[in-house]
Design goal:
Layout (H helix, E strand, L loop, with lengths): L9 H17 L6 E3 L5 E3 L9 E4 L3 E8 L13 E7 L1 H11 L4 E4 L1 E3 L6 H10 L8 E3 L5 E7 L5 E6 L4 H4 L1 H15 L5 E5 L4 H20 L8 E6 L6 H9 L3 E4 L1 H6 L5 H9 L7 E5 L5 E5 L2 E5 L13 H14 L4 H16 L7 H8 L1
Parallel strand pairs: 3-6, 3-11, 4-9, 7-8, 11-12, 12-13, 13-14
Antiparallel strand pairs: 1-2, 4-5, 9-10, 14-15, 15-16
Helix pairs in contact: 1-11, 2-10, 5-6, 10-11
């Protein structure tokens, strides 16, 4: 999400741009269009006091080693430093939302008290105000990602291990827990975001449950069925027909550059147009394209925005999750689609210039 144009101070650009967007989001808020069920533009009467965003997906323990440069195979070199952080796409998106001031809840599988990671993970969620009351707890360990971050380029190389971990056996339990949450608590959320995992059938059933519950509520004249549903399609190996099924159930579809290229789409403009043709008419399709920016498609219109360049690329781990978190924050605040895209690119670019996520608090303070 960082650009290769001429350099300017990210902090300076962010301060000016976020100030203008914050004025837009708070001025006449009841008249600012936001995305409603199945992507319709609706007038919100409670922008700024939105109910929480629910993110459904994976939590990972990231073991991060920072090196001066990515090591050669079979070499021996000293690391600059090492740290541990909570990771996973949906988990990271919650972290970003929290730092930006949006209430959120995470739903997924976490290790129970028999795991040495249990207390640390719970405390980390709690310290950010991320609710986890719907989570399933397993006696299996948390998946681990071993990450090498290169100071030379800012790249991140990930080795992911989920063998014999909690995510491997509890997915259907999570689905059952989610069905209960939807049945009893759907009215508590303004937005439900899914990170599409390899157990796609379970996620599709969860998305179908949301749509069925919304339809039933609307049939009875309820006004609590306006939640926006979004889905992230990331892995290039994901089958096109499966992805299309997920797209048909979402108001907003995020997909990665890697998945787009696996479909033969060579640039972000082509990607969102082709993906848009796979979706219902009112769906918003969004594709971040690294240092070239991002594109969106809605009702046959294509919007492209430039990436933002930090003074120095420090850490790109979680840049895509940060983009999605920035998008969800801006959209629930009522910003129009193009301004939402610009905001998401800015917050993702800001994140690439810092290590981890704690520095996003500075970005939030600029908004305030």
């Amino acid at each position: 999400m960082f650009g290769n144009k001429k350099k300017r101070s990210l902090f300076f650009k962010t301060k000016i741009c976020t100030y203008e967007w914050h004025k837009m989001a708070t001025r006449g808020s009841c008249l600012i269009p936001v995305t409603g069920s199945h992507g319709d533009e609706t007038n919100s009467t409670n922008v700024g006091i939105q109910q929480p965003v629910l993110c459904v997906g994976l939590t990972v323990v990231d073991m991060v080693t920072v090196a001066e440069a990515y090591p050669s195979e079979d070499s021996d070199q000293r690391a600059v430093r090492f740290y541990k952080q909570r990771g996973g796409n949906a988990s990271n998106t919650c972290t970003v939302l929290s730092h930006l001031g949006t209430k959120c809840e995470y739903l997924g599988v976490l290790p129970d008290s028999s795991s040495p990671e249990h207390s640390w993970l719970i405390q980390d969620f709690m310290s950010l105000g991320v609710a986890i009351k719907g989570c399933v707890f397993s006696d299996k360990p948390c998946p681990v990602a071993t990450v090498v971050v290169s100071q030379q380029t800012g790249s991140r190389t990930i080795l992911f291990c989920a063998k014999r971990c909690c995510v491997q056996w509890s997915t259907r339990t999570v689905k059952d827990q989610f069905v209960k949450a939807v049945s009893d608590r759907l009215h508590e959320f303004s937005w439900i975001h899914f990170e599409l995992r390899p157990n796609v059938d379970d996620y599709l059933q969860m998305m179908e449950k949301v749509r069925a519950t919304q339809a039933a509520l609307m049939t009875h004249g309820s006004d609590s069925a306006s939640q926006t549903v979004s889905v992230e399609i990331e892995k290039p190996e994901l089958d096109r027909l499966v992805a299309q099924h997920a797209m048909s159930l979402a108001d907003v579809v995020f997909f990665s550059k890697d998945w787009a290229r696996s479909q033969g789409w060579t640039d972000m403009h082509m990607a969102v147009k082709e993906a848009g043709r796979m979706c219902p008419q009112n769906t918003t399709v969004v594709c971040p394209w690294g240092d070239e920016g991002a594109a969106a498609w809605h009702k046959d219109d294509v919007i492209t925005v430039q990436a933002v360049l930090p003074e120095k690329v420090v850490d790109t781990l979680g840049a895509g999750d940060t983009f999605i978190g920035g998008f969800l924050h801006a959209r629930t605040m009522g910003l129009p689609l193009e301004e939402t895209m610009r905001f998401a690119c800015h917050v993702a670019g800001y994140k690439c210039g810092i290590e981890g996520y704690q520095g996003l608090k500075t970005f939030y303070h600029l908004l305030s």
